User: Which sequence fits this backbone?
């Protein structure tokens, strides 16, 4: 099918225009080797043409590896016969920033013989401030049509399809216009001149933005606003998505109750109840959280606040090789690593995104909470200090949370210093876009796409691993005794590994099953100790652990192990998908396992030394 | 000659040149954003604790950290 390319610089309103022209019929694909989304949709008023939404880029002169791939794909697309013409979107309110890129696009299109139409977006903003933009003058100067439009209000959009129809099927051939042979340096100067000649005059547009910035970036008011907004974001992941997550679990339990009794006794029943429904539940339960977080992050991005938040956090995170944009993904990781990893897409620097990926799994996620609660209840005294103001167990919980975050920052700090020259990085030059009212439909669509991406891509891996672990735990005695299953034997096999930490095979089995999800550790120990419902009521399990004579050093070592180890199949699956690198996920799994093991071993000896 | 990073909030300046230590692609990217030699830049915000500063160039607002802004030579307008 003939294709039309849509290209433009970031923050020019490209996604909104794409959704307008295609009626939100977007499907998302990735470039090979990197995570750059390319939307493809059918033009609503020209059903025989596909619109391809290229990733926003500031220039066709790339700096990072990711930009290089995006630009190479654009150049390849221009050679593709299916690509009929190009729409180049510019922000009419900030012409200079867009024009250099536009001139590069026009030049390359002329060389490739592809007709190009420039769309000057946000004309409604200029109208509102009684500003003018000489589109005809610019069109004459650059030698291609320039249409004034507003993707938000819909003004001028009716000109686009007639223009596309005019160019449809036209074989233009190479055009030797004045731009065709122009080097980048010349285009840069030309863009500067053209913006001055034809762009809107005056600074009325930035005045309102400056007023809001003086509040949101003020040392005091900005700090309070940041804290409130991040608190709401954290609440959205932890609290607001909880009812939907509970609903997913309830719906699956209801379906299981409906289906399982029909299967009688035996393997089919056990498989359906424990592997099928547990396997599906293991990843479906994350969908509401991913949806809510993607929606809120999109809201912050589209409103313009995200760039301000990145600015506020940049300085302290830079010490550890990260960027201000790493903060939201890391904060999300405190609830769950998976939405956090998705949120890291907003980081434009590949190097800093990779470092953020490394930090997120060390954030103390909610799945660690039941494990921490169990171990702290079993090994830390319930007493208080400082006249009852501080409880030792509460202090231990705070300490282990803080320890995880500190480990995340230390790991990125060390890796960043060790691999300084291995990446081509982007400088911290952050455009602060104007504050805007976000559109609800594109936000919902984006959140839905992200949730579906998780279900279709990571779900398969999570489900497969769940099945493997179920088979290991079920056979050869058909679920009669977990201790005598293949998984039990595996626990005994790895017992020598955990013996230096003072842990026997039962903990080895529980650690092996916690690969599904960390909280499974509690349920597995409950099963081994013969306690029903240990996840809901931990007291009998705590009593059993204390009665088993396990040393306090082993308990604290286990806490440290769980704070660091990356034994979560869902996180690994999504890490591999988002980074497009299985080897990264594998290296992180083994690297963090070794780090966790030796940190736990050191803790075991230090605690034993201290308590005698 | 002062650097862009030394500017206080409310001050304006003219960009004179880039230091050689600033990598070539960084310089190109800054010029793409409008930070040309000869261009006027206004420092809008200089937040506390060394956070990146906020600058206006043409009709666009950018934030630059000290790693970049220290290497842009400017002449501050009186």
Assistant:
């Amino acid at each position: 099918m003939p294709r039309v390319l849509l290209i433009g610089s970031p923050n020019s309103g490209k996604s909104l225009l794409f959704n307008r022209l295609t009626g939100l019929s977007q499907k998302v694909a990735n470039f090979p080797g990197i995570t750059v989304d390319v939307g493809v949709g059918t033009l609503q008023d020209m059903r025989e043409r596909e619109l391809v939404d290229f990733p926003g880029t500031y220039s066709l002169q790339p700096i990072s590896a990711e930009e290089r791939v995006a630009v190479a794909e654009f150049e390849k697309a221009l050679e593709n016969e299916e690509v009929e013409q190009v729409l180049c979107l510019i922000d009419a309110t900030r012409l200079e920033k867009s024009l250099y890129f536009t001139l590069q696009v026009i030049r390359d299109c002329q060389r490739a013989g592809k007709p190009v139409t420039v769309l000057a977006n946000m004309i409604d903003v200029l109208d509102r401030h009684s500003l003018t933009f000489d589109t005809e003058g610019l069109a004459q100067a650059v030698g291609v049509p320039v249409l004034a439009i507003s993707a938000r209000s819909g003004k001028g959009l009716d000109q686009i399809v007639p223009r596309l129809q005019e160019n449809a099927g036209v074989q233009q051939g190479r055009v030797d216009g004045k731009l065709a042979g122009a080097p980048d340096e010349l285009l840069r100067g030309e863009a500067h001149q053209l913006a001055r000649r034809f762009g809107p005059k005056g600074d009325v547009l930035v005045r309102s933005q400056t007023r809001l910035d003086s509040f949101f970036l003020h040392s005091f008011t900005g700090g309070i606003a940041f804290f409130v907004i991040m608190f709401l974001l954290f609440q959205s992941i932890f609290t607001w998505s909880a009812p939907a997550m509970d609903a997913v679990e309830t719906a699956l339990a209801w379906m299981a109750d409906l289906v399982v009794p029909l299967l009688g006794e035996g393997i089919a029943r056990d498989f359906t109840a424990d592997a099928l429904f547990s396997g599906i539940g293991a990843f479906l339960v994350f969908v509401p959280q991913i949806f809510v977080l993607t929606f809120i992050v999109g809201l912050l991005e589209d409103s313009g606040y995200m760039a301000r938040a990145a600015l506020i956090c940049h300085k302290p995170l830079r010490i550890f090789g990260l960027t201000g944009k790493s903060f939201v993904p890391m904060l999300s990781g405190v609830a769950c690593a998976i939405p956090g990893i998705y949120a890291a897409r907003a980081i434009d620097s590949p190097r800093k995104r990779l470092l953020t990926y490394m930090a997120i799994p060390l954030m103390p996620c909610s799945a660690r909470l039941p494990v921490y609660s169990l171990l702290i209840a079993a090994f830390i005294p319930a007493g208080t200090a400082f006249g009852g103001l501080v409880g030792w167990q509460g202090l231990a919980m705070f300490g282990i949370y803080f320890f995880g975050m500190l480990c995340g920052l230390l790991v990125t700090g060390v890796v960043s210093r060790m691999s300084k020259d291995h990446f081509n990085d982007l400088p911290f030059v952050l455009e602060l876009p104007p504050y805007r009212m976000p559109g609800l439909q594109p936000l919902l669509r984006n959140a839905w796409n992200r949730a579906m991406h998780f279900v279709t891509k990571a779900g398969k891996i999570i489900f497969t691993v769940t099945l493997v672990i179920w088979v290991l735990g079920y056979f050869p005695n058909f679920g009669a005794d977990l201790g005598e299953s293949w998984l039990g034997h595996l626990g005994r096999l790895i017992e020598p590994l955990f013996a230096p930490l003072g842990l026997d095979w039962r903990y080895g089995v529980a650690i092996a099953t916690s690969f599904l999800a960390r909280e499974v550790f509690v349920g597995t120990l409950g099963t081994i100790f013969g306690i029903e419902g240990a996840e809901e009521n931990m007291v009998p399990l705590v009593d059993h652990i204390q009665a088993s004579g396990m040393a306090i050093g082993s308990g604290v070592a286990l806490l440290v192990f769980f704070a660091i180890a990356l034994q979560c199949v869902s996180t690994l699956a999504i890490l591999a998908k988002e980074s497009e690198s299985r080897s990264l996920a594998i290296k992180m799994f083994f690297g963090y396992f070794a780090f966790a093991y030796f940190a736990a071993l050191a803790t075991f000896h230090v605690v034993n030394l201290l308590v005698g | 000659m002062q650097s862009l990073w030394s500017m206080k909030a409310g001050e304006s300046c003219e960009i004179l040149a880039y230091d050689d230590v600033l990598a070539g692609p960084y310089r190109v990217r800054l010029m793409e954003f409008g930070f040309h030699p000869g261009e006027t830049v206004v420092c809008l915000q200089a937040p506390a604790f060394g956070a990146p500063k906020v600058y206006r160039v043409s009709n666009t607002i950018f934030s630059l950290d000290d790693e970049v802004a220290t290497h842009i030579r400017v002449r501050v307008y009186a």
